[in-house]
Every structure is written in structure tokens, then in C-alpha cells.
Automatic annotation (TrEMBL):
The gene is glgX. It comes from Bifidobacterium imperatoris. Pfam families: Alpha-amylase. GO terms for molecular function: amylo-alpha-1,6-glucosidase activity. SMART domains: Aamy. This is Glycogen debranching protein.
């Protein structure tokens, strides 16, 4: 297809390759006096512009800026950078746009802009032609910013990594080229580029299970990957990585930002990194440091191709890919920050300025600046970027960071914002998954449930309710809690009070979560009552202090078995409520195997072992606590996906036209004695145990049984059916609902994990460990007293990891001792003591686990999704089931 003439691009900035071997280049700067396109070439190769460019030389009487004003095309040699810079004077402004036709252009060409205009920082005007600027529409990026005076548009100095100077002072005349990143052109004209692409999974909202992860952190320590693939896009696309995710059962992978990023000035001054990536440098370019070294060496085109290949691999494995995007602010920060793109192109047009002081920026993000989404061209810029990622890269959806900021008109939020309408009406974007973080730091910034169709939103009310009920109230040892039955029922039923805002808007708009990247991990929620962010260097003042967490009597790691078991069950209670509630569940990567950040609830600047997922537990030949939780969680995910009761978008409770709740034919409620709650019961804080029955006309019913008290309790389930337990949060500790007042303790547990055998089979060391573990199990089954040999030295990949000094809960440590079993060498050291050893173990087991136990179910039962029902001496078909203390259980109707 031939490219149309240049005037056809009058409303769309960017670099467009043309059939004559050149390119049309358009950039927006509404108030600049002059703009230049700058192309960089190495000086040891012939220039593509030799015939057109006038060579510039150093002239003590004429500044560089004065010289470039004289010629349409000029070039200069920068020997210290080994570069040739050729500058093309652009034509404009035409409705705020500047144009030039480049006679020659090529894939991988480095380029940028210089912009001249007024310098009046007190009125928000900061043009400085000495600053080399990125193309906002650039598809590739190379290099990074140095903490150097050259990177700032105002005169300053850097002393002891601190920037000294006033943003309202004189204009800097130091050339920033060589101290800032540059844009890279990528030729994207190939008409065959989408051939062979796999079909997008297009998972319906009602069947979606989201898994939030960091590309680097997920695979940085992955033992199944060769060193060169760890922490990369390619590592995430590796077959074993995909197999792990498939075994877990999630459907949609939500990636923390992968758009090119730059560390904020504050972090650079303190020598730290922005690990999360919520500091965008380029909205069209992928972050190059997540690519393999080989791709980085080949250039921006190879980096982008690795991202495309990763998305294709995820699609082929059946996963959707959702991108976390940050359009509320940029990496340039406040007015004291560096000038790398938007500030130098047109500060007034791109950023919101204070009405009473145009020299200062509005900040509803806490990051120093805020994009001005009242400017149509900013809205267009964001939509163009999103369409590019969706159409060219293949992204299936987007999660918008601080979404309220994107929907502020004249400073106030409105669900009728032009940007929201632009997303809704776009033929491509309107059909993708669009998720809002429904708050920001501005006035009246909490807006959960107010975005309307077709947006889903993070549900912080679900998060806080679940944490309060299962953590704060339990850890406080109170006879009553702070969460009513009405509140719990509302969250379990899809939060109709928040999301039934538009006709047809369903419960799937509620993104339910109990943990995410921002805050404690699931394990840390049960270990720490207070944040421990000292490593961030902000004196523990950063991060939220309102976490609704619990430590169960000990702050941090402990060796007390009772506390360990209580914490583990509390984590499963949260997970159970998450996956058994109506709405769209979202899990945090690593929560399924007890990942910890040592109590840091704001680890945005920790690009190290603290935030990289620790996979060392995979090496254990014994079934560790991590393996038990992993199997328990994957079992529950599978159960949710198998129940059509969750595969709809309606609320279990309905609203009348007057906005009043009315009973639903899809759900019924019961107290433990089998009676239905009366009006006063719904608000009685002393009621912490109940049964929720979900009814279906097409499949069997299920009951969700919540025992929120610290004692085993009998529940009278509906007498019109026979019920069996399918999942219980207490099973992670080896406990299971029983009848006749008894709780079943699962003693017959295999030590060998299916995850050991299948997830890790690409690594020779792991294969050897798995084989030795299986041999040991076989020897035990045959009554052989000789214990199979386990290597005394750790695998090399484990030794290379930095061990966390506080992580006493890691594999084979006191935090989750593996319960000894008859048949092991320890239990059979002396045949004459065998019986005594058994009795001792039994007594210890009963003492430690009166309500919670340290033994999980066997991996075979998890995989087969078939928990045998314990025998009972009840002959009258009684539906009285005894539920473990502090547990949530899924009971399934038995078909006659």
C-alpha cells in the first residue's frame, strides 16, 4: 500500500517511512518559534545527507543555536560522542504541527528534536534548543538520562548527586545530547507483519482470572531458564514459564508497565531505580532493559520484536495480555525535573498548570506533573499510543494507573470525560479489556464504581473488607468484628452497591483483589502489622500505614508452628473469598507460593532480590509449604472455572428501579443453625459465620460456608440436598470438614509434588533432584529403611541467589517444618522406638493443630480435583457439617 501525501498526516504526529526511501516527519508544538528534526549518524560512515547539509564549525562569535537558524539543513561533528548530527528545519506551525520530509530514512535511525522559543519559566514556557528531545511518537528508544546538568533546561549543578539550582533561573546552554536517550525509527510497513499471528484468546469477562506480574521480577531468579533469558520478555515466553502459568489456571496476564521508563529525579539523586516502571519515558517504545542482551545489542527493532514474540507466545498458550499504562504523568516530574521530551516540546500544552500560578504544575498524581487531558491533542496522543500497542503489538487490554486523573475536567472528575468517550467509541479499544484504578491524589479522588460501561475498576472496598474480616478482626481476638454480614454479603455478591451504576453493567466490572504490586504481598499481610520500608531510604515514611494486616502475635518471621499454621490459613481465607466471590478476581504473582517482601509495602524502588520472586523452594524434594499453597490455590482456580454459577455478569442481588436491594432467586443465606437471617442479623457485628447458597437451574448448587470464629462450628446446610466439600481453606494445613462434630485431619500425604516433576523438568539439576525424591518415596513405600541420598550441596543457581536474612520461612526452615511421617529414616532410627515415635508425632500434631494443621493434601488429589468424603456414622442423611475454625469452604450439591 502506498503512503498518502504528507497533508494526510496533518492531524497525526509521527515518523512515516515513504516509498521514495525517505520519511515524512510530523511533531506537535503549539507555541514554539522553530523546530528542528535531528538525525544522528556515526562519523566513521558516510552521511546519507552529504549533498543537502551545510557543515557547521565552531565559531566563537556565533552560538550553535544562531548557526542552525541560518540553514534549512546543516550538520556538525561531535567527536566526543563519535556522532554526526544533521538538523532539518521544520515547517510550521500549521494548527500546532511542524513538518519536514526527510530525503533518506532507515530502520534503526537515531533521531530527535530541538525546539526554540521563549524562555519564561514563571509563565510555564521553557523552550531550550540546547536540549535534545525524544519523539513522543517514537517506536524505539536507546540510551538513558545521566544525572548531569546537561539534562536540565535551567542552569544548575550536580553536587553529591543533588541538583543545585532554580527552575526559574537562567536558561541552560549546555548541550544535552549524549546525556539523554534518543528515539529510534522502526520501519513498520511490512504488509505481511501479522501473518502467522495466533488468534487472540478473547476470554470473556465472566471467565477471567487476572494474574498481575512484573516481567523482570517474575523470571529474574527462575531456575528453569538459562541465565541469558532471566528477567526478560523472552523468559516470560519460555515454554516452562507458560506451562507454570497454565498449571496455575489463570487466564489473563497483567504486566506492570513495559513502556520505556526513566527513574525519577528523586531516585536518581539517591542512587535508586524505579523498579515498578510507573515513570514513563516513551509511550510507544517498550522498555529495552527487559529484553535479552542479544536483542539490546541488535537495537530497538529487535527489542520490540522480542515483545511481539512474547505476546504471541502468551496468546498461543491461551493467555490474554493486559498492560498497565501510566498516562497520568511522565518521568519529567515537577518543574525542577529534567527535560527529555514534553517539557521541551510544549510545556503549556502537555501539562496541567496551576490557574493562579502558571509557572507551577498541578499534581494529582504525587509525581510532580499531570498530563492535561482537557487538551484534545493529549487525548489523541494517548489514544494513538493505545491503538499502537493493541494493533501492532497485540495487547488485549489496559489497566490505567490513577484513572481519576485521566477523567478530570477543570480539575473535577466526570465519567463523561472526552477521553473516556474516546476509549468507549474507538472500534478497536472499545472492545478490549479496559480497567481503571479509580482514585488519585487530587480533590475527591476516590471514585470506585463511578466510571461506568465498559470500564472495569479495581475494588478497594472488596480488598479492605476481606482483610478486615479475615485478618484485623481475627488478630484482635475480639468477640465481634468490624464487618457486618451485610458488608460481607455485598462483596461476595459482586459489590452491586458500587457497580450497578448503568443498565447492563455487571459484577464483572468489579476487579476483586486482596493484594497487588502496591502494598503487602499476601504472605506479608499475615506476618506484619506495620510496614517496614526502611530499605527505601525514606525513613519508613513512604507507603500506606493503613494496611488492615495482622501478625498473629509476632511481627515478622517466627518459628512457632501454631502461628505459622494460623497465618497460612488466613492467607487461604483471603484467597478463598477472592476466588469464590462474584466479580473478576485478580491475583498477585507469587502469592500462590508464599512470596514475601520482608514487610515492605512500597517496594517500587527495589530492583533486587527483595522484589524478584524467589523460586528456591522448587528445589526441595519434600512438599514444602509453598508447594502445598500452590496446589491448593490452583485447585481453587480450577474449581471456579468449572462452575457456571460464576460465568455470568449479573449481580446475585438485584436493584429495583428505585435503587433498593431486593431478594434474588440466585442466592440464599443461612445462619449456622440453618435459619435465614432476619433484618437485625445483617448488621450484627457478632455474626461472623454464615452459609451462602448459590442456586442454578442448569447445574448443581454450591454453598460457600464461612466460619469466622476461632472454634470449630457445626453448620446445618439446606436439607433438600446432600452436600460434599470440594475446597476448604483449612486443607492447606491438612484439615477438612467432617460430620458429627469431628474435623478430619489428613495424615496420608505424599511428599512429592507434581510441580517438582513437571514444572522444572528443563533443568538438569532439578531433574536429578526430582528423580532422587521419587526414588526416596518408592523406597519408603517398600518399607526400606535406607533413606535416599539427597545432595548436600545446593545447585549452582541456588547458590548464586542472595539469601534473605529474614526469610526464615523459606524452604526447609523452621517456619514450615515438614511433618515427619512413618517410613522416613528419622521415624525409623530404631525399630523398637517406632511405636513411641508414632504416638509422639500424633500428640504433637493434635497439640499444634487443634483448629489448624501443618499437613496439606496430596498432589494427586489436587490434580484430580477429587477430595474423598470422609466416612461418617450418620445414618439419617444429616446435613450437619463441622467446619474448621476460621475457614471458608466450598460445598457442592450431590446429584441424585
Amino acid at each position: 500500500m502506498r503512503n498518502p501525501p504528507l497533508h494526510r498526516y496533518a492531524t497525526r504526529p509521527g515518523l512515516y517511512f515513504t516509498d521514495d526511501g525517505g520519511a515524512d516527519v510530523v511533531v506537535r508544538s503549539e507555541t514554539a518559534d522553530q523546530v528542528w528534526l535531528c538525525v544522528l549518524e556515526p562519523i566513521d560512515k558516510p552521511s546519507a545527507f552529504f549533498q543537502d547539509a551545510i557543515r557547521l564549525f565552531s565559531d566563537p562569535n556565533t552560538s550553535f543555536i544562531q548557526q542552525i537558524h541560518e540553514f534549512p539543513v546543516c550538520t556538525r561533528i561531535l567527536e566526543h560522542l563519535y556522532l554526526r548530527e544533521t538538523l532539518f528545519r521544520m515547517t510550521g506551525p500549521n494548527y500546532g504541527l511542524w513538518y519536514v520530509h526527510l530525503p533518506k530514512a532507515w530502520d534503526g535511525m537515531q533521531y530527535g528534536y530541538r525546539v526554540d522559543g521563549a524562555w519564561d519559566p514563571k509563565h510555564g514556557v521553557r523552550f531550550n534548543p540546547y536540549k535534545f528531545l525524544l519523539d513522543p511518537y517514537g517506536k524505539g528508544i536507546e540510551g538513558s538520562m545521566n544525572l548531569d546538568p546537561a539534562a536540565f533546561s535551567y542552569q544548575c549543578a550536580v553536587q553529591d548527586r543533588k541538583v543545585i539550582g532554580s527552575a526559574y533561573g537562567a536558561m541552560s546552554t549546555i548541550d544535552s545530547l549524549g546525556h539523554v536517550p534518543v528515539s529510534v525509527a522502526i520501519d513498520d510497513r511490512d504488509v505481511h507483519k501479522h501473518e502467522g499471528d495466533p488468534d487472540h484468546p478473547h476470554v470473556p469477562w465472566r471467565k477471567t482470572v487476572i494474574y498481575e506480574m512484573h516481567v523482570k521480577g517474575f523470571t529474574a531468579n527462575a531456575p528453569w531458564l538459562p541465565e541469558e533469558l532471566r528477567g526478560t520478555y523472552a523468559g516470560l515466553a519460555h515454554p516452562i514459564t507458560l506451562a507454570y502459568l497454565q498449571n496455575l489456571g489463570v487466564t489473563s496476564i497483567e504486566l506492570l508497565p513495559i513502556q520505556a521508563k526513566q527513574d525519577e529525579l528523586f531516585l536518581q539523586e539517591h542512587g535508586r531505580k524505579n523498579y515498578w516502571g510507573y515513570s514513563t519515558l516513551s509511550y510507544f517504545s517498550p522498555e529495552p532493559t527487559y529484553a535479552t542482551k542479544a536483542a539490546q545489542e541488535k537495537g530497538a527493532t529487535a527489542v520490540r520484536q522480542e515483545v511481539i514474540d512474547m505476546v504471541r507466545a502468551l496468546h498461543e498458550a491461551g493467555f490474554e495480555v493486559i498492560m498497565d499504562v501510566v498516562y497520568n504523568h511522565t518521568c519529567e516530574g515537577g518543574v525542577e525535573g529534567p527535560t527529555v521530551c514534553w517539557r521541551g516540546l510544549d510545556d503549556l500544552a502537555y501539562y496541567r498548570h496551576q490557574k493562579s500560578n502558571a509557572g507551577r504544575l498541578e499534581d494529582t498524581t504525587g509525581c510532580g506533573n499531570t498530563f492535561d487531558f482537557t487538551n484534545t491533542h493529549v487525548v489523541t496522543f494517548a489514544v494513538d499510543s493505545l491503538r499502537y500497542w493493541a494493533k501492532r503489538i497485540g495487547i488485549d487490554g489496559f489497566r490505567f494507573d490513577l484513572g481519576v486523573t485521566l477523567a478530570r475536567l477543570n480539575g473535577e472528575f466526570t465519567q463523561h470525560h472526552p477521553f473516556l468517550y474516546a476509549l468507549r467509541s474507538d472500534l478497536l479499544l472499545g472492545n478490549l479489556k479496559l480497567i481503571m484504578e479509580p482514585w488519585d491524589l487530587g480533590n475527591l479522588g476516590w471514585r470506585t464504581g463511578q466510571f461506568g460501561i465498559p470500564f472495569a475498576e479495581w475494588n478497594d472496598r472488596f480488598r479492605d473488607t476481606a482483610r478486615t474480616f479475615w485478618l484485623e478482626d481475627v488478630d484482635g481476638s475480639m468477640d465481634y468484628g468490624r464487618t457486618s454480614l451485610q458488608e460481607m454479603a455485598t462483596r461476595l455478591c459482586g459489590s452491586a452497591d458500587l457497580y450497578a451504576t448503568d443498565p447492563g453493567r455487571g459484577a464483572t466490572a468489579s476487579i476483586n483483589f486482596v493484594s497487588c504490586h502496591d502494598g503487602f504481598t499476601l504472605t506479608d499481610l499475615t506476618r506484619y502489622r506495620s510496614k517496614h520500608n526502611e530499605a527505601n531510604g525514606e525513613h519508613n515514611n513512604d507507603g500506606s500505614s493503613n494496611n488492615h494486616s495482622a501478625n498473629f502475635g509476632v511481627e515478622g518471621v517466627t518459628t512457632e508452628p501454631e502461628i505459622i499454621a494460623a497465618r497460612e490459613q488466613a492467607a487461604m481465607n483471603l484467597t478463598g473469598m477472592l476466588l469464590l466471590s462474584l466479580g473478576t478476581p485478580m491475583m498477585l504473582a507469587g502469592d500462590e507460593f508464599r512470596n514475601t517482601q520482608d514487610g515492605n509495602n512500597n517496594a517500587y524502588c527495589q530492583d533486587n532480590e527483595l522484589t524478584w520472586l524467589n523460586w528456591d523452594w522448587l528445589y526441595s524434594p519434600q512438599k514444602t509449604r509453598e508447594m502445598r499453597r500452590l496446589e491448593t490455590v490452583s485447585h481453587l482456580v480450577s474449581l471456579r472455572k468449572s462452575l457456571d454459577l460464576y460465568h455470568h455478569e449479573d449481580f446475585f442481588t438485584r436493584l429495583t428501579q428505585l435503587g433498593l436491594l431486593k431478594p434474588s432467586s440466585r442466592v440464599k443465606w443461612f445462619l449456622p443453625d440453618g435459619s435465614s437471617p432476619v433484618e437485625r442479623d445483617w448488621f450484627d457485628l457478632g455474626i461472623r459465620s454464615f452459609t451462602m447458597r448459590l442456586l442454578s437451574n442448569t447445574e448443581v448448587d454450591v454453598c460457600i460456608v464461612v466460619n469466622g470464629v476461632a472454634e470449630n462450628r457445626d453448620f446445618h446446610l439446606p436439607s433438600d440436598s446432600t452436600w460434599i466439600p470440594k475446597w476448604c481453606s483449612a486443607e492447606v494445613n491438612g484439615l477438612w470438614p467432617g460430620q458429627n462434630g469431628h474435623i478430619i485431619a489428613d495424615h496420608d500425604v505424599e511428599d512429592i509434588s507434581v510441580w517438582m516433576q513437571h514444572v522444572q523438568n528443563a533443568d538438569e539439576t532439578v531433574r536429578r533432584l526430582a528423580e532422587e525424591a521419587r526414588a526416596k518415596a518408592a523406597a519408603t513405600a517398600q518399607g526400606n529403611n535406607d533413606e535416599a541420598t539427597v545432595p548436600s550441596s545446593q545447585p549452582r543457581s541456588v547458590q548464586s541467589h542472595t539469601t534473605r536474612t529474614s526469610d526464615e520461612e523459606s524452604t526447609q526452615t523452621a517456619e514450615f517444618p515438614v511433618t515427619k511421617k512413618t517410613g522416613t529414616a528419622a521415624a525409623k532410627k530404631d525399630a523398637s522406638q517406632d511405636q513411641d515415635q508414632k504416638l509422639l508425632e500424633t500428640e504433637q500434631l493434635l497439640r499444634v493443630t487443634e483448629a489448624l494443621n501443618a499437613v496439606g493434601r496430596s498432589s494427586a488429589e489436587i490434580v484430580n480435583n477429587d477430595k474423598p468424603v470422609a466416612a461418617t456414622d450418620s445414618s439419617d442423611g444429616s446435613n450437619v457439617w463441622t467446619m474448621p475454625s476460621l475457614s471458608i469452604t466450598l460445598m457442592k450439591q450431590v446429584q441424585n
